[in-house]
Amino acid sequence: MRYLRFFFVLFPLLIGNKLYAQPKVPDQKMQWFADAKLGIFIHWGIYSVNGISESWSFFNNYINHNAYMKQLDGFTAAKYQPATWVNLIKESGARYAVITTKHHDGVALWDSKMPGATTTVKHSAAKRDLITPFVSELKKSGLKTGLYFSLPDWSYPDYDGFTRDRKRYEYKQDPARFKKFQNYFHGQLNELSSQYNPDLIWFDGDWEHSGEEWQAKQILENLRKVNPNVIINSRLNGHGDYDTPEQGVPVLKPASPEWELCYTMNDSWGYQPYDNHYKSPNMIIRTLVDCISMGGNLLLDIGPKADGTIAPEQVKILKGLARWTQKHAEAIYGTQAGIPSGHIAGKTSLSKNKDVLYLYLDYKTKNGILLSGIKSKINKIEIVGSKAQIHSIKLSETDYLLNLNEPDFDSDVTVIKVSLDGPIELADSKQAALSLADLYSEFKENNLTGLSLNKLAGNLNAGINIFQNTSLPSDGLDFDPGIKNADQKVSNWVIKNAEALYKTGKGIPGGHYQGNTALSADKQTLYLFVEGTPTGPIAIKGLKNSISRIRIVGEGTMLPHEIYNKLYWSKIPGMVYIPLPEDKLDPELTVIAVLLDRPIELYREKVSAIESNL
Question: Is the overall model pTM greater than 0.90, yes or no?
Answer without folding.
Answer: yes
